[in-house]
Amino acid sequence: MAQVEFSQGFIQAGPYRTRYLHAGDSSKPTLILLHGITGHAEAYVRNLAVHAEHFSVWAIDFIGHGYSSKPDHPLEIKHYIDHLQQFMAAIDVQTAYFSGESLGGWVTAQFASDHPESVERIVLNTMGGTMANPKVMERLYTLSMEAAKDPSWDRVKARLEWLMADPAMVTDDLIRTRQAIFAQPGWLAACESNMALQDPETRARNMITDEVLENIKAPAMVLWTTKDPSGPVDEARRIASHIPNSRLEVMENCGHWPQYEDADTFNKLHLDFLLDRS
Length: 278
Fold this sequence. Notes:
Blueprint: E1 7-13, E2 16-23, E3 30-34, H1 48-52, E4 56-60, H2 77-90, E5 96-101, H3 103-114, E6 119-125, H4 134-149, H5 153-161, H6 172-182, H7 187-194, H8 200-206, H9 210-214, E7 220-225, H10 233-242, E8 246-251, H11 258-261, H12 263-274
Parallel strand pairs: 3-4, 3-5, 5-6, 6-7, 7-8
Antiparallel strand pairs: 1-2, 2-4
Helix pairs in contact: 2-3, 4-5, 4-7, 5-6
């Protein structure tokens, strides 16, 4: 971020104190970047600069995550969508482009289905919400809760390594950044709340159905990776097949954070789609 002109701070979005990173001229179209479960806005630090040339870019901490408000109840997709709507109202934006990774993709897909009037284009990046693999859910829950109970270097590092195809991408700076978040007072309770979607019953009532995908009107890019720990490329093909105006892109040798792990490839694919460049 040393070479990026950006701001960070907090916006009161309805009842939610929302932490953000912002880059780009506010006169440009709005792009909102949404991170994954137990994540934070820094998931997009390698993407802000090039996107800010074309967009007013906002990367936010979801409620229950990062440094935003921590509601004292289990968090389901409807709660994240309410947060997103409150945030858009707070920055006085009626329509936007959206890109969501994992949980962020889950929220983006449901939001685009429910509120087509608010959406220009969407990117669903290794999105969650279409699968319920008990082994993946248990592994994610265990790694997250162990790091929440004991945000030691090794436990936080193990949680971050789950995201990457190449463990070397988990840098010391990234570990320290997440350690500081996990060390906040009340983080253990917050982590329990944002892990609600790993509970089978809760997950079942929040799943992205084929009908939801088929109802998405906005142009969509489904982006997947060859080494995603949450599911195979075949699932991405299935997702894309149900969205009427969609395309599929697959990035090689990346895990669950392709926007971070191979930023150059991601940025090109992402901008080509968002700007409708063929």
